[in-house]
Amino acid sequence: VQLQASGGGLVQVGGSRRLSCKIFSSFSVIDVMAWYRQAPGKQRELVAAITPSGSINYVDSVKGRFTISRGGAENTLYLLMDSLKPEDTAVYYCRAQLGTSVYWGQGTQVTVSS
Asked: Which residues contact 68 (CB under 8 A, 6 or more apart)?
């Protein structure tokens, strides 16, 4: 299983950005998929997660601003980020779980400038 994240970059405060994570897997079903982020000097934190049935969870700080979704025969994970704030600046990682195995993408940097 390989995950390839993309879509990061520099964006102004209040702007939007969409992250994508392509999942390459021989398995037909991926369990929970999620986006995490890690800001400088901070621990990696869960941003949003989505189950195969479509149940979604967000960290409180992004509720109402970020939207996680799955698409493309469910082998692509997206994170639409609106109303971006400087505190959203971080490296964003996608994560996929298959049974007890966990796989991570390489991370994509999002920088929000004021």
From this structure: 34, 35, 47, 48, 49, 50, 56, 58, 77, 78, 79, 80
Task: Let me know: does 59 contact 47? Beta carbons within 8 Å.
Answer: yes
Q: Which residues neighbour 69 within 8 Å (Cβ) at sequence distance 6 or greater?
A: 50, 77, 78, 80
Backbone phi, psi, residue 63, to 5°: -60, 135
Round to whole Å and give the CA distance between 59 and 51: 15
Residues 96 and 33 sit within 8 Å (Cβ to Cβ) = yes
* Digit-coded pLDDT (tens) for 13-63: 999 999 999 988 877 677 889 999 999 999 999 999 999 899 999 999 999
User: Listing from the earlier edge strand, what are the strands of the sheet with 2-6?
Assistant: 2-6, 17-24, 76-81, 66-71
Calpha distance 46→55 (Å, rounded) = 15
Question: How many Cβ atoms sit within 10 Å of the Cβ of residue 57?
Answer: 14
Beta bridge partners of 109: 91
Mean of the per-residue pLDDT values for the chain?
93
